[in-house]
Write a structure and sequence with these properties.
Four copies of one chain form a homotetramer. With 215 residues, chain A is an alpha/beta fold. Helices cover 35% and strands 28% of the residues of chain A. In chain A, the strands form two sheets. A seven-stranded mixed sheet of chain A has the order 3-2-1-4-5-6-11, sandwiched between helices. Chain A has a four-stranded mixed sheet with strand order 8-7-9-10, with helices on one face. The relative contact order of chain A is 0.17. The model of chain A has no long low-confidence stretch (mean pLDDT 94).
């Protein structure tokens, strides 16, 4: 696979290069400029929303699919990505871990069966993480279709934990996801990149990528 | 509702009487004999397999539905209950908590999507509990359709915790159920008894009772 | 032991009567009045601060020790109790569980050794609990001598969980306490009442009661 | 610091080289031979007991302190290390994380105060880990001075979790340690190496290293 990478010198960028070994990095976007040595089939961007426009322009230029893991996107960013998806495949998610997405599916499906249970969310991340609550916590909350409180802890080097607690008068159900390392997101990005190569234009969730891997 | 109760003097029997307040206890089976002051519509038995035959005979005699929460039933006990269910409604489960049954549904549905994750079960109960692993842990294991290890802790007065841990190279998902009090099982028994009154003969799981409450 | 009980008709009052079985309840204070059939050696009050003055007056009248589990006391309430303790033994704590008090001791002693770890507190209680954070959470925070965030969850019938999470760049330590039932506080009250019988006037913490039981 | 490293090509060896950046690696022992470009002041060995004799000989030859993180040492290995410690400083531990060692101190000090609580241990590691229970779990068990059950889970890529559950009739205390990454052990090794430079011959635990850092 020939791939492009926005944010190639950042922490997540380095993880992606490590996990994408064996594939050709033909386009790099970072603080020092844009470097191109080929035509990317897919562009991966886990950086920040400031460079999203550049990623979109490059995707249009090369007809490349896009994998977007940038968090804290604005409504207008999402509109831009929707527009792009009329030309190329776009996989967008606030969390590229298989586990988180399966947790989301569980919540979407079982939240109504747990209607007599009250629920709250807890998420824990390293103290360097600036936004709170995490995009993932918001995504999980959406999946429950409830207006529930989210508690954000910022301590040490925790890669990312998310827990939802359901309780009624007599029992408690807790579902917890823990990222062991950042690598899990890079692995998800690689799967999503492969998905792009085999799909037509369109706006896809990472959940569709997971279901595709289960065929 | 006119109900009968096998094991009316035991710890669980007392919980049931407490939760069934407002209904008529017309038949009691316990260590000192069988006491009848009316015709039960349903018989509840959370005692032990030694008295199962008595419960079945009384159910046949009165055409009463049966709610069976006895654990550690043998294959032949289950056959006897199946035979009984050709005459009356029988609700049988190793665990009458809503939460545990929803956990079972989640495992049955998502275990295959988590096929790249390894899994193990942990269950913790009060040190007075003699059987290990718990019937509930075995039920949850069955739901995963995997041959996974079960770890049994027996400490203090814990009413009953069950956890399943799924992990792959980069992430962990843990689903935990905690019974806050024994009352939860008596509440489940009452719901199952109501279900019997509205259903024909047949062999039902507590899961069917839950789905019925969600109509 | 001859004991008095303030709030004898409340939920906690009933637990205390249950656990104090075998001792003589000779004085009751509740919504309908004050009922006396003897001279109490100790008065137990887990009700609310509105009736604290009555409890103090009765303690002075009978020279009875006092066990105070009322939460959300004001500074002036505490001053009143200190004054009372110049005449009789007073055991005051926001939490009468052995486990919570041992957790407090651990935090007081090890918080400084964990100085390179960041910390946050989480407490979970039944949704009927009105104050947040819990008095116990504040007590645990004090023990750490740190200014740390407290997250309060209010769901279902959870009797009371308290967790502290310490994390540095490479590791996490979590200490969790779970009350299994309200009974644990009544058991602590009984131990504290016994402590009063064997001690002179003075203001005592429940921690001193625990150390006394370990002699 | 001039240091030697036994097992320099293994997974832990690489972590150590990464964390020791800025110090001089002057001696390497690995599968392909012994490579020396200077005189080590301290030798670090987190490999396996087969090469322990080589590490000891080199330490004697250079008068270098030794940091030993090898697990599953035999009684005779420990005797050899004790003998070595009559000549040079030796820091030996089955776990070089600050958190685990603080957990050990808590257990040693509070296990007796929790005498009315029953206890069990759970440890979870990646499925590649062959020994069970972990050396760390055995070390924690020793600290409690109790004969308690240890449950070992082997799933996915979990770096290493250890939990101890204490419970009595009414409450549960759980203390959990989670390694976020292997790096934590390499950081501990660096601290222990620094400790060696400032200490005389003797056999030291990592706990003594931690107390030294807190001066």
């Amino acid at each position: 696979m020939r791939y492009g990478l926005t944010g190639s010198t950042g922490r997540m960028g380095k993880e992606i290069i490590e996990v994408f070994k064996g594939h050709d990095l033909v386009l790099e976007v970072n603080d020092t400029g844009i470097f191109r040595h080929g035509e990317p089939e897919v562009i991966v961007d886990f950086s920040n929303r400031e460079v999203l426009k550049t990623t979109i322009e490059l995707a249009v230029q090369f007809g490349a699919g896009v994998v977007i893991g940038t968090t804290a996107l604005s409504q207008s960013d999402l509109t831009d990505l929707r527009t792009l998806s009329e030309k190329v495949p776009v996989v967008q998610s606030y969390n590229f871990s298989t586990g988180i997405n399966i947790m989301k599916m569980i919540l979407r499906e079982f939240s109504s069966l747990l209607k007599d249970f009250e629920a709250e969310l807890i998420e824990t991340h390293h103290s360097g993480k600036k936004d709170a609550p995490s995009g993932t916590a918001l995504m999980l909350k959406d999946a429950t279709e409830r207006d529930l409180p989210i508690h954000s802890l910022r301590v040490g080097g925790v890669p990312g934990d998310h827990s939802i607690v359901f309780a009624n008068e007599g029992e408690v159900i807790e579902i917890t996801h823990r990222a062991i390392s950042r690598k899990v997101f890079a692995i998800g990005a690689l799967t999503a990149a492969r998905f792009c190569l085999e799909h037509e234009k369109g706006f896809y969730s990472f959940e569709e990528v997971i279901r595709w891997t289960q065929r």
